[in-house]
Write a structure and sequence with these properties.
3 helices; 4 strands; four-stranded antiparallel beta sheet
């Protein structure tokens, strides 16, 4: 299944930093926890310029919440976010998507 993740950050500059620096690392480490990163985008219109949007997939029998929790508690996540003020992430919205096929 797929999961859409929408990260709303404090401002456009923080979103750009998170998109460039942190997601480059997440792309490497998330697969170690069972996720495939299908794409990551940054908002390009005024209303969403402070958002980073990612599409990840995980096994149909996987528990995305449990997998995410393992990643958030890992040394990899700590390294991925070192030097980044996580308080600048205002909101995280997730949506599970299923193909119509």
């Amino acid at each position: 299944m797929d999961q859409l993740r929408i990260y709303t950050l404090a401002d456009k500059e923080t979103a750009a930093q998170y998109f460039t620096a942190n997601w480059a690392k997440h792309r490497i480490n998330l697969p170690k926890f069972g996720f495939e990163v299908k794409g990551v985008w940054i908002g390009n219109t005024p209303g969403i310029a402070n958002q980073v949007i990612a599409l990840v997939s995980f096994p149909d029998d996987g528990d995305a919440d449990e997998m995410t929790e393992r990643y958030l508690k890992s040394a990899e996540f700590a390294a991925d976010t070192a030097g980044f003020d996580r308080n600048k992430i205002i909101n995280i919205e997730t949506k599970i998507l299923r193909s119509g096929n």
